[in-house]
User: Fold this.
Amino acid sequence: MQTEQKRVNLAEKFSLFTDHWHPRIVGELNGQQVKLAKLKGEFVWHHHEEEDELFLVVKGKLLMKFRDRDEVVNEGELIIVPRGVEHCPVAEEEVHILLFEPASTVNTGTAGGEKTVEKLEWI
Amino acid sequence: MQTEQKRVNLAEKFSLFTDHWHPRIVGELNGQQVKLAKLKGEFVWHHHEEEDELFLVVKGKLLMKFRDRDEVVNEGELIIVPRGVEHCPVAEEEVHILLFEPASTVNTGTAGGEKTVEKLEWI
Assistant:
């Protein structure tokens, strides 16, 4: 069952994995998924054709690079990256994020490459 | 512009209002909205016909009553209430929540009544 009424404890879910740039699904609603990921280092420049993407920083400090500027997103802050906008997330130190995005979203967007995770698991 | 790349600081947004049971919109993506609300006391029993609803507790402790049981949702936890499921949020002490739900969602669902907020504003 994808849509449920069970509580999700973010800290508990984050304790279940240690790898970076590999989102896990923790909830689904209205065709959107809630994912958790740990980030460290620099990701790849990419965009999503059809999906807007929300990043909520649960721990740490995320640098979101855009082609025309950088945004620093601190703990307790969120940023929405609209479809079509190129971005590159960078985490100098480890960052924990919560993502809201359509179930169809691939982490590397149209860029592909070795950091692409084809099939995400639920935790 | 509804979809943007600006950072949203949750604490800063929560400082902009004091009333209870009156959600404010802070973001929009993929037809869904991100809302913030302060809760205190007991809401009304209601359900949403077409919308699943996510509650993320940013501060405090939320009691979510269902017809068959209660769930306590603590700070750093989220709960997804599927469409059609009757629920009644209760906050003994003030609770700050982030909501993620379709833009069409009315706070009191099909129940209506005096706690209904017809038109939500952006902050």
Remarks:
- Residues 6 and 49 of chain B are 32 Å apart (CA to CA).
- The mean pLDDT of chain B is 93.
- The interface with chain A takes residues 3-11, 26-30, 32, 34, 51-54, 66, 71-74, 76-82, 85, 100-102 of chain B (CB under 8 Å).
